[in-house]
């Protein structure tokens, strides 16, 4: 395969697999001129023989690695969400048809693409995913301990701390009611719980250390209610926010805007869409609920008057989601413009 054979190559679509990639390319006239299956390790050698052009791929595992590799070679990679590729699929589903659909979608000028993540972003994202998994497994372990205790006729009041403080006392005072085998099982589960607590603390400390040294995280943490977890998760997900034109677009991507249905000039707004990043949405809503628990602090914030009025006319949960939307928009603005929260108001107040 000589490079001159594809001088007019305009776009290439890659269907990324675990061990093999399927490649389809179109020339300037829209004709398919390339249809090939390659091994993952042959990616660089294959594209060295091809002219530099637009290369599309679906957002999936290793997509960012492939994108960075091709960009270093001079190509123009575009990572596309699978939902935006689906309308271009023709015929039955197979790897070549998927690659062809990706190649066509990559040429659409108004199609939203996924920002390429750096290795530092992927590392930070991995930390958050590990922590999220550990928290989920810890919750499952605690629930299993409670379930086994209830089967023995023993109930413990709600809360992680209540169970931790009373666990050893229960085993000691109820030793006649709990069989030796069940006691061994409960002690093993409690050991798993303590191990996961330790792992969560270590991962959380590592995330906090990153938040103190990363300038973008430091800026975002000036927003009320936003700490190391949200700031680092946000930087890991969107970098400096260049993929969005405004804060409302970021809030929509997080899924904090009402579902919009419009027809015949009639617009209906429903519940929030819950699209996009479920993890970030959860963190922003948690931050909003914490702020709403402290109404005495509201006057200290520039949005305090708005929040006071909103809490009077909205249900508490609805107001929390509205506040989460506002926090997300402010966080994006600070991240994109590299400033601090209420910086202009502070400068006026001290006469700068």
Topology diagram in text:
Blueprint: E1 9-16, E2 20-27, E3 32-39, H1 43-48, E4 54-58, H2 63-72, E5 76-80, H3 82-85, H4 95-105, E6 113-114, H5 119-151, H6 160-173, H7 180-213, H8 215-220, H9 228-238, H10 247-254, E7 258-263, E8 266-272, H11 278-292, H12 304-313, H13 316-337, H14 343-350
Parallel strand pairs: 1-4, 4-5
Antiparallel strand pairs: 1-2, 2-3, 5-6, 7-8
What does this structure look like?
It is a single chain. This protein is of the alpha/beta class and 352 residues long. The chain folds into 3 domains: 3-114, ATPase, nucleotide binding domain (Nucleotidyltransferase, domain 5); 119-213, no CATH class; 215-350, no CATH class. Helix content is 55%, strand content 14%. A 6-stranded mixed sheet has the order 3-2-1-4-5-6. A two-stranded antiparallel sheet has the order 7-8. A hairpin with a 2-residue loop joins strand 7 (258-263) and strand 8 (266-272). Helix 5 (119-151) packs across helix 9 (228-238). The protein is globular, with a radius of gyration of 26 Å. It starts with 8 loop residues before the first strand and ends with a helix. The relative contact order is 0.07. One of its GO terms (molecular function) is transposase activity. It holds the Pfam family Transposase_20. One of its GO terms (biological process) is DNA transposition. Residues 219-295 form the Transposase IS116/IS110/IS902 C-terminal domain. Residues 12-149 form the Transposase IS110-like N-terminal domain.
């Amino acid at each position: 395969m000589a490079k001159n054979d594809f001088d007019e190559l305009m776009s290439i679509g890659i269907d990324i697999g675990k061990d093999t990639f399927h490649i389809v390319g179109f020339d300037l006239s829209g004709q398919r001129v390339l249809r090939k299956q390659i091994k993952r390790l042959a990616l660089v050698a294959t594209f060295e023989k091809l002219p530099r052009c637009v290369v599309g791929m679906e957002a999936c595992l290793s997509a960012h690695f492939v994108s960075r590799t091709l960009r270093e070679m001079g190509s123009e990679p575009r990572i596309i969400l699978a939902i935006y590729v689906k309308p271009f699929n023709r015929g039955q589903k197979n790897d070549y048809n998927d690659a062809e659909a990706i190649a066509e979608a990559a040429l659409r000028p108004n199609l939203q693409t996924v920002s390429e993540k750096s290795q530092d972003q992927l590392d930070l994202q991995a930390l958050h995913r590990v922590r999220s998994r550990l928290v989920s497994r810890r919750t499952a372990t605690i629930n299993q301990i409670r379930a086994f205790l209830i089967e023995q006729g023993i109930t413990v009041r709600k809360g992680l701390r209540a169970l931790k403080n009373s666990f050893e006392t229960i085993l000691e005072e109820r030793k006649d009611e709990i069989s030796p085998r069940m006691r061994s099982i409960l002690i093993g589960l409690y050991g798993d719980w303590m191990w996961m607590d330790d792992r969560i603390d270590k991962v959380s400390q590592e995330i906090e250390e990153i938040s103190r040294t990363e300038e973008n995280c430091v800026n975002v943490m000036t927003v009320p209610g936003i700490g190391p977890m949200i700031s680092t998760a946000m930087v890991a997900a969107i970098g400096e926010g260049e993929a969005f034109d405004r804060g409302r677009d970021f809030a929509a991507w997080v899924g904090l805007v009402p579902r919009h249905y419009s027809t015949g000039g009639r617009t209906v707004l429903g519940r929030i869409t819950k699209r996009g990043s479920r993890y970030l949405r959860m963190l922003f809503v948690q931050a909003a609920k914490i702020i709403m628990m402290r109404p005495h602090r509201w006057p200290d914030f520039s949005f305090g008057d708005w929040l006071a009025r909103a809490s009077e006319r909205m249900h508490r949960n609805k107001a929390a989601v509205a506040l989460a939307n506002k926090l997300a928009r402010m966080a994006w603005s600070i991240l994109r413009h590299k400033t601090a929260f209420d910086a202009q108001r502070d400068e006026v107040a001290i006469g700068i």
